[in-house]
């Protein structure tokens, strides 16, 4: 997870209504699952997708999208999510599971480079 991303979210989002938080790093994105409490001490979930981008001046910015999920919708949301995940898995099965890595190149990308006569060159080694 990007330290700056987590710290920025912490300073902007964290308040007395926060109950629990689970950040999940997935490639260039970080997902934040935050349990919050209303004034009446009723819990709800916020899911934030944060993607780190580099501006032209080299500074990092974070593109964020957030949804609020209330407990009366948990079951329908969960059922819908499970259904679409199963749909995708049935039609596009995972051949090999790899941990996310920003430098990872799929076997197809490596093969395409080889076919085009391209190779990976590390200019620091020259």
What does this structure look like?
The protein is an alpha+beta fold and 126 residues long. It has one domain: Nuclear Transport Factor 2, Chain: A, CATH 3.10.450.700. The chain has 3 helices and 4 strands, in the order αββββαα. It has helices at residues 3-13, 74-91, 107-115, and strands at 18-26, 29-37, 43-54, 60-70. It has a 4-stranded antiparallel β-sheet with strand order 1-2-3-4, with no helix packed on it. A hairpin with a 5-residue loop joins β2 (29-37) and β3. The radius of gyration is 20 Å and the shape is flat. The chain starts with a helix and ends in an 11-residue tail after the last helix.
Task: Detail the topology: elements first, then pairings.
Blueprint: H1 3-13, E1 18-26, E2 29-37, E3 43-54, E4 60-70, H2 74-91, H3 107-115
Antiparallel strand pairs: 1-2, 2-3, 3-4
């Amino acid at each position: 997870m990007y330290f700056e991303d987590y710290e920025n979210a912490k300073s902007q989002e964290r308040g007395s209504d926060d109950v629990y938080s689970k950040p999940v790093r997935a490639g260039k994105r970080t997902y934040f699952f935050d349990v919050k409490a209303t004034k009446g001490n009723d819990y709800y979930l916020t899911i934030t997708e944060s993607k780190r981008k580099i501006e032209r001046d080299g500074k990092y910015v974070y593109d964020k999208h957030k949804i609020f999920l209330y407990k009366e919708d948990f079951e329908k949301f969960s059922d819908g999510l499970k259904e679409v995940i199963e749909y995708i898995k049935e039609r596009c099965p995972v051949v090999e599971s790899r941990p996310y890595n920003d430098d990872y190149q799929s076997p197809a990308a490596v093969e395409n480079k080889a076919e085009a006569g391209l190779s990976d060159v590390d200019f620091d080694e020259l």
